[in-house]
Design goal:
Number of helices: 20
Number of domains: 3
Helix content: 40-55%
Number of strands: 12
Shape: elongated
Mean pLDDT: 82
Largest sheet: 6 strands, antiparallel
Radius of gyration: 30 Å
């Protein structure tokens, strides 16, 4: 059960005695040993004294709040104060223990207080929320005699529901893996990290997992466990996180409405069955047949080029006169996309990967089908990963060839099916070209990501660009991501062109809506669909914008 108390105190040293007694009593009540109580008390008093000094320097008499909370076997001390007080520990330089030969009188020890706190507490965070600042310190409970144990060892982490762990080799005793969350976050894990992940059940401490690791795989540094734990925290892959508690039910429902993601049941079994039927294509003859079929579409396109051009130029008028044409066209496009996605899936299955999701989601300003082939990240050869990305386009290329031949047989008939097949071939061609565009998360993007060997290229490029630009404008820290010179150069190019393309892609539907509204002729149901698209797009853009604005106002820095 959670327990908490809140003290509102003036920035005056006279009240430090009350702070000391409150922490000692609270820590004793929740079961902390005497040694841990002393660590908590000294760290909190150190922070309060520094805050009082900073308040005096700023001439501020604004009270501060001291919040003590016991939750999940941890005592959390949070000191909240106004931004008028210039106490910004995230900007403090790292403290270095002085050499005995140095002149201690000339030692600059402005960050000594923070150094002492970090030595006594397990985790230290600093949060900026609008005009409010908060220093949050955490101490995890230990049994008496084990107070010196690293905090990570007393944790009992549990994986959040819905995660997928893709193993590189199920027959290996200690395989590497890829951990994937439902929202798309991915962690690539080595054998050591996979060993730890597979034992996170919410009941076993990381100390026990650590000892099992030492016995079976050899030594591992506690700092490696801390890094893994914090990466999982950042990706929200741990159960019962603060984020889960803060997120209300209606916000989760709203997220599903604005960002719908529907996957068919037993997706992996469905893809496995399709793979069993299409196994013959995974031969030189099968691959050659698909490519030849797609390439052969040039013949009917050349033979009936003038007629196809005439049909294309008359598509808008034909759709307005006979809107029923849209129904068979939609069905054909739907089938083509399904074949495309299954193309990715069956190649992934061919190399032993698992396909946990196959369905439809809302991306940028439209609905798209997808096939989750994250397991391909485990494939040891780049060639295998590239073939997974190329599986869909190869199938679409073959479908394009079939469509062109079918349109050629109907050429000149002036029938409904002639228009449908020509329109289908045109859409398929542009979809194939767009699929190789590396600036959106489609096949070309994943091919580029494999070629550059940079995972999460799009998100990392945008984060890099955002940090640099906001840092230059004075809204955040101008800090680079941990990246090589080559990666930073790629981030610059990809981030700039990707951002520009995304903006254009978001604006085009709105421009089309305005054009339809100003059209002289009656557009029928097209206006209704345009309104729906614009509403969904506006909500989507507003959601992303609000998230970014909140992120600018609300920063949290890990100081440990």
């Amino acid at each position: 059960m959670n327990k908490s108390i809140i003290l509102t105190l003036p920035p005056d040293g006279l009240w430090l005695g009350l702070v000391e007694r409150s922490i000692l009593s609270f820590a004793e009540t929740v079961g902390f040993s005497e040694t841990l109580r002393r660590m908590l008390t000294s760290a909190t008093l150190e922070a309060c004294e520094e805050l009082i000094n900073a308040s005096d320097a700023a001439g501020s008499q604004e009270p501060y709040r001291l919040v003590l909370e016991f939750r999940d076997k941890a005592l959390i001390v949070e000191i909240e104060y106004d931004d008028l007080v210039q106490l910004n520990p995230h900007k403090a330089d790292d403290y270095e223990v002085p050499n005995s030969a140095e002149d201690l009188n000339e030692l600059e020890a402005a960050s000594l207080w923070l150094h002492l706190i970090k030595r006594r507490m397990d985790r230290v965070f600093f949060r900026v929320h609008g005009s409010q600042r908060a220093l949050r310190m955490i101490k995890y409970i230990r049994e008496s005699g084990w107070e010196g144990l690293d905090w990570i060892m007393v944790m009992r982490p549990k994986l959040k529901k819905g995660l997928h762990l893709h193993l590189s080799d199920h027959e290996k005793a200690y395989p590497s893996g890829v951990l994937q969350s439902p929202d798309g976050a991915v962690l690539k894990l080595g054998p050591s990290e996979t060993f730890v992940i597979r034992r996170m059940d919410g009941a076993t401490t990381l100390y026990d997992i650590y000892m099992a690791h030492v016995e079976e795989l050899g030594m591992v540094s506690p700092s490696d466990l801390v890094a893994l734990y914090e990466r999982m925290e950042a990706c929200e892959m741990l159960a019962d996180t603060d984020q889960d508690r803060r997120q209300s039910r209606w916000r989760r429902v709203l997220h599903r409405v604005v960002n719908p993601d529907i996957s068919i049941p037993r997706a992996d079994a469905c893809v496995a069955r399709v793979y069993a039927w299409s196994r013959f294509l995974f031969t030189p003859f099968g691959l050659g047949a698909l490519l030849a079929l797609g390439l052969s579409g040039v013949i009917p396109a050349w033979m009936h080029f003038e007629r196809f051009k005439e049909v294309v130029f008359g598509l808008e008028m034909t759709f307005l006169d006979s809107p029923i044409i849209l129904l068979p066209l939609y069905v054909l496009i739907l089938l083509s996309i399904i074949f495309h996605e299954l193309g990715h899936g069956v190649v992934c299955k061919h190399y032993g990967g698992k396909v946990p999701r196959l369905g439809i989601m809302f991306y940028l300003s439209t609905f798209i089908f997808y096939c989750d082939t994250t397991a391909a990240l485990n494939f040891p050869r780049k060639r295998q990963r590239l073939l997974v990305s190329l599986g869909g386009p190869i199938v679409s290329f073959a479908v394009l060839g079939v469509g062109l031949w079918a349109a050629g047989t109907m050429s000149g008939s002036a029938s409904l099916w002639e228009t449908v097949l020509v329109a289908f071939s045109l859409i398929n061609f542009f979809a194939l070209v767009m699929g190789f565009n590396p600036l959106i998360k489609m096949d070309g993007y994943y091919i580029l990501s494999d070629l550059t060997e940079i995972p999460n290229l799009r998100s990392r490029s945008f984060l890099f660009l955002e940090r640099r630009l906001l840092g230059w404008l004075g809204f955040g820290e101008d800090k680079d991501l941990l990246a090589t010179h080559r990666e930073r150069r790629i981030f610059w190019w990809y981030g700039i062109f990707g951002a520009l393309f995304t903006v254009v892609f978001q604006v085009l539907p709105v421009v089309e809506f305005v054009r339809l509204m100003n059209a002289e002729s009656v557009s029928g149901g097209r206006l209704v669909w345009a309104v729906i698209i614009c509403v969904l797009l506006s909500v989507r853009v507003a959601s992303v914008t609000l998230k970014k604005l909140n992120a600018m106002r609300d920063h949290e820095y890990n100081l440990t």
